[in-house]
């Protein structure tokens, strides 16, 4: 082992000491992580392994980690290979029974096991759970031209209304990490595709999670999407609507932000948006004072949470 200089030793020790109060504070807490982003589909497996190592670290220090994942690009690829048409409306995939069958296979036979494998390689236990064993939904209705009396659907696209937490808690009790796909069923047992951001929010609410973390393709919320230096490191929930109205928050970030608002209203302490491809962004956001992404907090609550 090489001898560290006094400066190097002090620097390394300061990082550990900065993390210590967070490790102590969060031990035993539930963190829900929305696992998504371009890194999932990258041929560079090192990116996924870095995320997996961060997740394994959280698990090792006593945080109860629950993962909810997407898989849109993998689904689109599989549908294309099977010559099944892919159609999107309002950013959501129109889902016929034929499409749902492919979605189920890709998410639960390919994506979930792959995420679990990455985590297990980092020394933590992980277990895939098919969302349709946990998530209860109804068919999602969309307004036509903002007229309440006129609605349409996107086939088997669901809106989650409840989460069965017993299986999740059982996996956590067995010191394993649940890895959940965003499929759901209605009261008659029909299978629906759901938005993974919304699914993560619903799971966090049902588990009364302390943190909800979204892994994104951007550093967080930015006042100028072209300028990473415009990152908003911390923001109150009440400020979000004006950012949406002024189009500072737009496109695919809107459903994430709406889910974040819902989670905070329902009792999640803080919501974080972090860049999935930034090395160890998960650890830096959770265990350092400054963080590296965006945290959203509830204005009326104490900040030391």
């Amino acid at each position: 082992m090489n001898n560290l200089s006094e400066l190097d030793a002090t620097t390394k020790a300061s990082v550990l000491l900065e993390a210590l109060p967070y490790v102590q504070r969060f031990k035993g807490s539930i963190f829900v992580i929305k696992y998504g982003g371009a890194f999932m589909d990258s041929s560079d497996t090192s990116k996924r392994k870095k995320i997996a190592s961060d997740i394994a670290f959280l698990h090792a220090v006593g945080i109860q980690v629950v993962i909810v994942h997407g898989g849109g690009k993998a689904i689109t690829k599989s549908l294309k290979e099977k010559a099944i048409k892919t159609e999107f409306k309002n950013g959501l995939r129109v889902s016929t029974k034929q499409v749902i069958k492919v979605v189920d296979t890709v998410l639960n036979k390919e994506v979930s096991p792959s995420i679990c494998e990455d985590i297990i390689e980092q020394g933590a236990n992980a277990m895939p759970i098919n969302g349709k064993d946990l998530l209860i939904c109804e068919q999602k209705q969309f307004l036509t031209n903002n007229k309440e009396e006129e609605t349409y659907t996107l086939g088997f696209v669901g809106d989650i209304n409840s989460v069965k937490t017993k299986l999740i808690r059982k996996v956590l009790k067995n010191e394993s990490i649940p890895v959940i796909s965003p499929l759901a069923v209605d009261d008659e047992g029909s299978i629906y595709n759901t938005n993974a951001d919304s699914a993560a929010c619903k799971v966090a609410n049902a588990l009364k999670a302390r943190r909800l973390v979204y892994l994104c393709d951007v550093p967080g919320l930015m006042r100028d999407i072209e300028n990473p230096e415009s990152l908003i490191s911390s923001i109150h929930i009440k400020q979000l609507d004006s950012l949406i109205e002024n189009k500072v928050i737009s496109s695919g970030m809107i459903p994430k932000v709406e889910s974040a608002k819902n989670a905070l209203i329902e009792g999640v302490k803080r919501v974080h948006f972090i860049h999935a491809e930034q090395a160890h962004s998960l650890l830096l956001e959770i265990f350092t004072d400054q963080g590296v992404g965006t945290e959203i907090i509830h204005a009326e609550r104490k900040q030391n949470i």
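The domain at 31-297 is CATH 3.40.1160.10 (Carbamate kinase). The CA atoms of residues 2 and 225 lie 43 Å apart.
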